[in-house]
Amino acid sequence: MYFSESPWRCGKFCFCQRQNVTSISYFAFMNKIILITGATSGIGKACATKFAAAKSDVIITGRRNERLDELKAQLENDYGINVLPLCFDVQDREAVNAAFANLPAQWQKIDVLINNAGLAIGRDSFEDADMNDWETMLNTNVHGLLYVSKAVLPYMLAQQKGHIVNMGSVAGKEVYEKGNVYCAGKFAVDAITKAMRIDLLKNNIKVTGIHPGAVETEFSVVRFKGDEVAAKAAYTGLTPLTASDIADTVFYCVNLPAHVCINDLVITCTQQAGTYYFYRKP
Ligand SMILES: NC(=O)c1ccc[n+]([C@@H]2O[C@H](COP(=O)([O-])OP(=O)(O)OC[C@H]3O[C@@H](n4cnc5c(N)ncnc54)[C@H](OP(=O)(O)O)[C@@H]3O)[C@@H](O)[C@H]2O)c1
Which of 65, 144, 218, 270 has the most CB atoms around its CB within 10 Å? Predict the structure, then answer.
């Protein structure tokens, strides 16, 4: 592809002369509004960066305000797009509703919602697991996803179009030892994704479930409660997926023609098949 002027350097309102165009994928996202929950780290941050690079405006959310501010400054500076940071805990229904009820008018035409915020806490056998960990996982991964979806949907219904991408997991396809309630939550995400897809068909809203295997992010550090050694061990002998691999996948799904919808996508690194089978190099 050849551009008479680099589209990455000329700001949001550029009208670059394209010549010899072989793909419209990047221009398809210009001035779109992409909302990404859990954008302060890992997959969410990579998605925010990917879409910002494609000249979309992005709404980024998370609980760590300073990280949101840093990312806003970085993306606006690097890509000349607009970023709206919203700091709230997805477990807090009132906070979620307040964040979206007060959305400035220019941010209301949300094209894509990426329900990514989530976590695993603990890797314990059922009888040993902590009920607080279980509640946090269900409140975040299931209730949080529902709260955000319900708060954002009216904006998509008003436009009679949109795309919701729910971040599931291979843990939502196959239960594994000591995965108990994390798996249960991600099974729920899978079911909710299918239910949304069916119920929102009439509204021209696409719904896609992405189900990654091991991705090296802060996920394992959170799961093992700050134990960096245990977190690192999860990836021993593997070349795991990166957050960018998942962002690229989400971008692909969202970039398909209007009549095409990927419903469900499982993605692992080459050395992983399902939740149990890994080939770890010695
Ligand atoms: N990494 C993997 O191996 C893997 C595999 C399959 C699926 N997934 C899924 O992918 C998603 C992203 O995970 P990741 O790997 O990118 O992990 P990560 O690096 O730990 O990022 C998790 C993100 O979720 C946000 N978050 C967590 N709890 C939240 C809450 N209560 N309210 C608002 N935001 C919250 C975090 O932001 P704050 O802390 O700033 O709130 C952070 O931005 C999760 O849904 C996870 O289950 C991950």
Answer: 144
Single pTM value for the model: 0.93
**Domain for residue 60, yes or no?**
yes
Closest ligand 1 atom, residue 141 Cα: 45
What is the predicted pLDDT for the residue at 28? 79
In which domain, by residue range, is 124 found? 27-278
What whole-number percentage of the chain has pLDDT above 70?
90
Give the helix/strand (H/E) hosting 154: helix 145-159
Residues 49, 73 contacting (CB under 8 angstroms): no
Instruction: Write 228-234 long-range contacts (CB < 8 A, 24+).
Output: none
Total domains in the chain come to: 1
Phi, psi dihedral angles at 87 (to 5 degrees): -100, 110
Q: pLDDT, tens digit, for every residue of 178-231?
A: 999 999 999 999 999 999 999 999 999 999 999 999 999 999 999 999 999 999
The pLDDT mean for the chain works out to 92
Whichever domain contains 144, its CATH number is: 3.40.50.720
CB-defined site of ligand 1, < 6 Å: 38-44, 62-64, 89-91, 116-119, 140, 144, 167, 169, 212, 214-215, 217-219, 222, 243
